[in-house]
TrEMBL record:
<comment type="similarity">
    <text>Belongs to the RLP family.</text>
</comment>
<keyword id="KW-0325">Glycoprotein</keyword>
<feature type="domain" description="Leucine-rich repeat-containing N-terminal plant-type">
    <location>
        <begin position="50"/>
        <end position="86"/>
    </location>
</feature>
<dbReference type="InterPro" id="IPR013210">
    <property type="entry name" value="LRR_N_plant-typ"/>
</dbReference>
<keyword id="KW-1003">Cell membrane</keyword>
<keyword id="KW-1133">Transmembrane helix</keyword>
<keyword id="KW-0812">Transmembrane</keyword>
<dbReference type="GO" id="GO:0005886">
    <property type="term" value="C:plasma membrane"/>
</dbReference>
<keyword id="KW-0433">Leucine-rich repeat</keyword>
<protein>
    <recommendedName>
        <fullName>Leucine-rich repeat-containing N-terminal plant-type domain-containing protein</fullName>
    </recommendedName>
</protein>
<keyword id="KW-0732">Signal</keyword>
<dbReference type="Pfam" id="PF00560">
    <property type="entry name" value="LRR_1"/>
</dbReference>
<dbReference type="InterPro" id="IPR003591">
    <property type="entry name" value="Leu-rich_rpt_typical-subtyp"/>
</dbReference>
<dbReference type="InterPro" id="IPR032675">
    <property type="entry name" value="LRR_dom_sf"/>
</dbReference>
<dbReference type="Pfam" id="PF13516">
    <property type="entry name" value="LRR_6"/>
</dbReference>
<dbReference type="Pfam" id="PF08263">
    <property type="entry name" value="LRRNT_2"/>
</dbReference>
<feature type="compositionally biased region" description="Basic and acidic residues">
    <location>
        <begin position="1055"/>
        <end position="1066"/>
    </location>
</feature>
Length: 1147
């Protein structure tokens, strides 16, 4: 091809040159954009090796249980979790290791499901390797655990820092003044290191813990760029120039001084009141929990004429006399918290001027009585909390103007009585809490209120008096879907089946229906709530079987259905609930066996199947529940041995297998080898367990505080190692233990009960028992103890029951006084070999309610001061009621109450009614010996029978007006029954038989209307038996062997008593009169029978005669019934004949 020269014109040449230059410029721009693009690998900064090594060293000092720093590997630390580098220099500029649960909190997500402890990094201190990050400007180590170490002084050398947060980091001690070098700091947060909420257990492990504090705050004045300062829960109580220093910070916008011990502030805060520098005015101020008074607050805000405050928190001061008047100046205030200040009366008018700006208002835990009408002007209000006040009556009609704004409304713990319908118009409502009121009326049902609240997420009506009609049966129809996540209707009076509309709440996560009167089967509609996490149906009247398709609720973590009437088997589908942490089906009538697939519930921490009719053995698969902490299987019919693989349950804290039919041998061998260090409660009472306790029992279970092994077949001796434990309860009663009781009991300030009764223990009474200053109950009865009673027992100052009955103790009774037993209510020394006199010092035991010294060889007279036993002297002091005295079956100890969120156990300094209800003391009242358990606290009894007492019955004994039983029988008492015995109105049993008493039976005795058991036999009483009330009902045997008694019940008639003598000649007249009366009564009886029969007969026959259609219908009915009977008889006869033929053939 020929080359043809091409000549370009000058214009064309310039055009091509311009185009080429434009193309080059465009290419360079595109290349630069690509290099700077975040998606381009070329744009990522690459970690500087020295800084990477520093971060690796810092990580090596941290304990990371959740492995959230797993990305910290490889060479480029700029890509690691929590690290940010400068895009130009590649230096690390940001280190954010804050707890990820905190980010959920900031996003207003529920934090209940986030385990702060699991995600907290832990270290013994903040390592100085961070100094290598010299370009670091952002450091956040909040919500971690630095184990009470001080804030390191080297942080003051990190001069480029603009953001520093050690909030909730568990640091302690003095704040270092070196922080003054951080002159570029804009954000400083050292808050919430005063105590720990989510990691409270750590506080007790820090021997070097001291509250984060500062005695010199002048270093803050050097931080001229500071905008946000949070020193909440830092002890600043010793600083007197705090506000003078803070007033030097020209850029401060946010100041939080919550709980800083600022009770004596007086210097004004200029940055709030400085009208000449409005750009410098504070926008957020938190002075809560400082016990500030109204004068102090007035001093802090003196001369204020304007304010830029948007957020003000004055809660938890408790000492305010009134709402500060300067609040009217805060026209831009959006958030105001005045809760927990003990303010009284109506909500004050000083809040009225906030109506144009306020969005969040918190007034809880005061004593406000009314909500004023001007509250309806708060049209921008989003969050309102007036809970825990003294509001009463119906909910006032001042909220309807807020229907377009209100999102959270808290009115719980008041005395409100009625719920209006207009709640259903709050279309933006997210949280509504009306719990713990006196609500007994609703203008609309719960379903009617819910039907249009599409965005409502939590609704709480719990602990009120709402009834069946208030829940509503109509379906929900106002929303396509409902956002409701939590519904609490517990502790009301709702009745009937559960409403079907519950099944429409498809987003429900928490449903609480405890303690109502819901009945019927658990509805299938609950099986549709697949997002449910917590379901509480406890303490209702549900019956039938558990849902077979409950396995669909795979997100369930808590299921409580205790105290209902549920029956049948535990469904096999329970094995699908793999997220379950708590399962409580106790106190029902479930039967069958515990399913084997319960071992699939690998996250279970609490399992209670107690008080059912479950049988079979404890499944081996139960031992797969490695997280199990509480196991309650008591009061069933389980048998067999405890599984051998219990050693896998390494986290068990409480075990109760009592009141079953378990057998085998107790052992501290393999099956307990791993659980015993953490075990706190072990209850195997009321089973058939054999064997003996190893001598090192106390050593291998060092944390045990409750050991119940009563009513088994245990033998051997009591291990001495139990003396040294921090035990609270020890019950080894009703076994076959032998040998001496150890004399090594140590006062740990925790002992509450020791029950060693009904064994074969011997030896002397251990003197070391007298050291147990916190002991409530001591039962050593029904053993073979010998020797004398100890004279010195001054350490048992809290003792309530002292039972040494049925032993072989001898000698005289010690002169125990009120100093020895100031709290003693039951003293039982029955059936020993005691001799000598009853010491008069016994009368000083002012709390005594049961005194049983019967079946001994005591001599002398009854102490004249016995009427001084103040615990028996009045109905009030003796807690006297009309006690129904009856034998009670033994009961097993109930499990320790479980609290889902608890960090420590607290025990009351006095014995509770529940603890009293488990105590067991034998008493002879009304002539029979019974075990008193549940009503023991209310029994008041004196039994001095079967001794060798002489003298008269002291008149002062009639002052014991709270006594239920008084037994002085089988002694050698003389004299008369005190005439004022009629004052003992609570007396139900009185026995003075087999003595030498004489004189008349007091005429006041018929006034003892509660007296149902009386025995005066075998004495020398004389005169007539009193007449009236129950004396006419007593059997004459109670008076036998009193030859000088007379009365109509006895053969001896009293002189001049004509009531039972019929003059001659009158006998037949009286018989004739009786016969006549009998004839008249018979005639009247037959007359009324005849009239009734005639009326009934003609009432039916007459209608049939007069009404033809009824007559035909009646005859047809009779014929049909006759035909049915005939057919049934024929079939039965035919079957019988066929059976007889078959039998003949077989024969």
């Amino acid at each position: 091809m020929n080359n043809i020269p091409v000549f370009l014109s000058p214009n064309m040449s310039r055009y091509l040159t311009s185009a080429a230059l434009a193309f080059l410029f465009l290419f360079s721009e595109i290349a630069q954009i690509c290099m700077c693009s975040p998606n381009s690998s070329m744009s990522l900064p690459y970690c500087i090796p020295r800084e990477r090594d520093a971060l690796v060293k810092f990580k090596s000092t941290l304990h990371d249980p959740s492995n959230r720093l797993s990305s910290w590997k490889g060479n480029n630390c700029c890509q690691w979790e929590g690290i940010a580098c400068d895009n130009v220099t590649s230096h690390v500029v940001k280190l954010d290791l804050s707890n990820p649960c905190l980010r959920l909190l900031e996003q207003s997500e529920s934090t209940n499901d986030c385990d702060y402890e699991q995600y907290a990094l832990a270290a013994s201190n903040v390592d100085e390797s961070l100094l290598e990050l010299e370009y670091l400007s952002y450091l956040d180590l909040s919500w971690n655990d630095f184990q009470c170490s001080p804030i390191p002084a080297f942080i003051g050398s990190m001069r480029r820092l603009t953001h520093l947060s050690l909030s909730h980091a568990h640091v302690s001690g003095r704040i270092p003044s070196s922080l003054e070098n951080l002159t570029n700091l804009r954000h400083l947060d050292l808050s919430w290191n005063y105590y720990f909420i989510d990691l409270a257990w750590k506080v007790y492990q820090c021997s070097n813990f001291s509250i984060l504090n500062s005695s010199d705050i002048n270093w803050i004045s050097k931080l001229g760029s500071l905008e946000h300062l949070d020193l909440s829960h830092v002890d600043l109580g010793s600083i007197h120039n705090l506000f003078q220093v803070l007033n030097t910070l020209p850029s401060l916008l946010s100041l939080s001084l919550r709980a800083c011990e600022l009770a004596n502030l007086t210097y004004p805060l200029v940055n709030v009141t400085n009208n000449n520098a409005p750009h410098q005015l504070l926008q957020l101020l938190d002075l809560s929990n400082n016990y500030l008074t109204s004068p102090v607050l007035d001093a802090v805000f003196q001369n204020m004429t304007t304010s830029q405050l948007v957020h003000l928190d004055l809660s938890g001061n408790w000492n305010l006399d009134s709402v500060p008047s300067w609040l009217s100046i805060c026209e831009k205030l959006k958030y105001f918290d005045l809760s927990r200040n003990d303010l009284h009366g109506p909500i004050p008018d000083a809040l009225r001027n906030l109506s144009t700006s306020i969005e969040s208002l918190y007034l809880s835990e005061n004593k406000f009585t009314t909500i004023p009408s001007w509250f309806s002007n708060f049209e921008k209000l989003v969050h309102l909390d007036i809970s825990m006040n003294a509001l009463s009556g119906p909910i006032p009609d001042i909220f309807p103007n807020m229907t377009t704004s209100i999102e959270s409304l808290y009115l719980y713990k008041n005395h409100l009585t009625s719920v209006p319908c207009w709640f259903g118009k709050f279309k933006k409502l997210v949280h509504l809490d009306l719990s713990y009121n006196d609500l007994a009326h609703m203008e609309c049902s719960v379903s009617s209120i819910l039907t249009n609240l599409c965005h409502l997420r939590s609704l709480d009506f719990s602990s009120n008096k709402l009834q069946r009609e208030h829940i509503g049966d109509s379906e929900l129809s106002g929303c396509v879907t409902y956002d409701l996540e939590a519904l609490d209707l517990s502790y009301n009076e709702f009745r009937g089946p559960l409403p079907t509309w519950l099944g429409q709440l498809e987003n429900l996560k928490r449903l609480y229906l405890r303690s109502n009167y819901f009945y019927g089967p658990i509805p299938f509609s609950l099986g549709k709530l697949v997002k449910l996490r917590e379901l509480d149906l406890g303490d209702n009247l549900f019956d039938g079987n558990l849902l077979n398709d409950i396995g669909q609720l795979v997100n369930l973590t808590h299921l409580h259905a205790s105290s209902n009437k549920l029956s049948g088997f535990i469904p096999h589908s329970f094995g699908q609930l793999v997220s379950l942490q708590e399962l409580d089906l106790s106190n029902n009538t479930l039967n069958g066996t515990i399913p084997q697939n319960i071992g699939k519930l690998v996250n279970l921490r609490w399992l209670s199947l107690s008080n059912n009719n479950l049988n079979g053995t404890i499944p081996q698969s139960l031992c797969h529940l490695n997280y199990l902490e509480r196991l309650y299987l008591q009061r069933n019919k389980l048998h067999g041995n405890i599984p051998d693989d219990f050693d896998q349950l390494v986290n068990l804290v409480h075990i109760d297998l009592s009141s079953n039919e378990l057998d085998g041998w107790i052992s501290m061998g393999k099956e307990w080898s791993l659980i015993k260090p953490g075990l706190q409660t072990l209850n195997l009472s009321y089973n058939h367990i054999n064997g003996s306790l190893p001598q090192n029992t106390g050593n291998i279970m060092p944390n045990l505080h409750s050991l119940f092994l009563a009513n088994n077949l245990l033998n051997g001796s009591i291990p001495k190692s139990l003396c040294q434990n921090e035990l609270k309860y020890l019950d080894l009663s009703k076994n076959k233990l032998s040998g001496e009781v150890p004399n090594c009991w140590r006062d740990t300030q925790s002992w509450q009960e020791i029950n060693l009764s009904s064994n074969k223990l011997s030896g002397d009474f251990p003197s070391s028992f007298g050291n147990l200053s916190s002991l409530f109950w001591l039962h050593l009865n029904n053993n073979k103890l010998q020797g004398q009673l100890p004279v010195s027992m001054n350490g048992l100052t809290q003792l309530l029951i002292f039972d040494l009955g049925e032993n072989q103790l001898s000698g005289t009774m010690p002169s125990w006084t009120a100093d020895t037993f100031p709290s003693l209510q039951v003293l039982r020394l029955r059936q020993n070999k005691l001799s000598g006199f009853i010491p008069p010092q016994l009368c000083q035991l002012a709390s005594l309610k049961i005194l049983d010294l019967s079946l001994n060889s005591l001599e002398g007279s009854i102490p004249w001061c016995i009427g001084n036993l103040e615990g028996m002297t009045s109905l009030h002091k003796a807690n006297a009621t009309s006690v129904f005295i009856a034998a009670e079956a033994p009961i097993a100890y109930a499990p320790i109450a479980y609290a889902p969120i608890a960090y420590a156990y607290a025990y009351a300094p006095i014995a509770s009614d529940d603890e009293w209800s488990k105590e067991d003391v034998k008493q002879v009242i009304k002539g029979r010996e019974d075990d008193y358990i549940k009503i023991l606290k209310y029994v008041v009894n004196v039994d001095l029978s079967k001794n060798k007492l002489v003298g008269s019955i002291p008149n002062g004994i009639t002052r014991l007006t709270g006594l239920h039983g008084l037994n002085l029988s089988h002694n050698q008492l003389e004299g008369e029954i005190p005439k004022m015995i009629g004052n003992m109105r609570s007396l139900e049993s009185f026995d003075v038989s087999h003595n030498h008493l004489s004189g008349k039976i007091p005429n006041s005795m018929p006034s003892l209307t509660s007296l149902s058991h009386l025995n005066l036999s075998h004495n020398n009483f004389s005169g007539p038996i009193p007449i009236g009330n129950q004396f006419s009902t007593y059997d004459s045997s109670i008076y036998i062997d009193n030859p000088y008694l007379c009365g109509h019940e006895l053969p001896n008639k009293c002189p001049g008593d004509d009531s039972h003598e019929v003059p001659e000649g009158r006998e037949y007249e009286e018989d004739d009169e009786d016969g006549k009366r009998e004839k008249v009564e018979k005639m009247l009886f037959y007359f009324f029978i005849a009239v009734g029969f005639a009326t009934g007969f003609w009432g039916v026959i007459g209608v049939l005669l007069l009404n033809k259609s009824w007559r035909h219908a009646c005859f047809r009915w009779v014929e049909d019934k006759a035909d049915n009977i005939y057919v049934a008889v024929v079939i039965k006869v035919a079957k019988l004949k066929k059976r007889m033929v078959r039998n003949n053939v077989d024969g």
